[in-house]
Amino acid sequence: MKFRHPLAHEKIELQMTPMIDIVFLLLIFFVMTFKIVAAEGDFNIKMPLARPDSGTPDESLLPPLKLQLVADDEGRLLADGIRLNGQVFADFEGLHAHIRGLIGDDAGPGSVDDAEIEIDADYQLRYNHVIDAVTAVSGYVDADENVVKLIEKIKFTPPKPPPTG
């Protein structure tokens, strides 16, 4: 007596129709739920150089602006703590208005495209004040919801810890 396996002569077929249905359902789901948003926080920031012996950029084209942020012992910004090249500002709105007057709103011939700013923040300054400073100098959104860029080249001085003792 020969023993024969019942599935030995049957052909196994893969059911492709349900797999294709699932793929199309996933495709439709991802296409319908995809939302395109504007890039947030896209800053062209130059961080401090890794080594002091590496090459430095040519600063003869346009001297960089120097923004100094001075904080108290608790990390709060002082009343006269916003200084741009020695000029004191009461708030970031005043700094923003000054930068807009300095750089100009429109791009094209005659605009300052190579403007650069260096931010020197105190070691204990709270992070939100640094972000407010970057926001004030980098640009704004106009009434038509267009992004107007002011200064794109932002660099930071290396942090200096407060003296101990």
Provide the descriptors you would attach to this structure in a database record.
two-stranded antiparallel sheet, six-stranded mixed beta sheet, single chain, 165 residues, 3 helices, alpha/beta
Write up this protein.
The protein has 165 residues and is an alpha/beta fold. The protein has a domain at 61-156. It is built from three helices and eight strands; from the N terminus they run αββββαβαβββ. The chain has helices spanning 16-33, 92-103, 127-138; strands at 44-46, 65-71, 77-84, 87-89, 116-121, 139-141, 147-149, 153-156. Strands 1-8-5-2-3-4 form a six-stranded mixed β-sheet. The longest helix has 18 residues, at 16-33. The radius of gyration is 29 Å and the shape is elongated.
Quick take:
The chain has 165 residues and is α/β, with parallel strands linked by helices. It is built from three helices and eight strands; from the N terminus they run H-E-E-E-E-H-E-H-E-E-E.
Give the DSSP E fraction (strand runs of 2 or more residues). 15-25%
Q: Give the biggest beta sheet.
A: 6 strands, mixed
Element-by-element helix/strand order: HEEEEHEHEEE
The gyration radius over C-alpha positions equals 29 Å
Global geometry: elongated
- In round numbers, the mean pLDDT is 78
Total E-strand runs:
8
Runs in which pLDDT lies below 50 for 5 or more consecutive residues are 57-61
Biggest sheet: strands side by side, in what order? Answer: 1-8-5-2-3-4
Helicity level, as a percent range? 25-40%
Task: Please identify the structural class as seen in this structure.
Answer: alpha/beta
**Total of DSSP H or I helical runs spanning 4+ residues:** 3
Kindly report how far apart the N and C termini lie. Answer: 99 Å
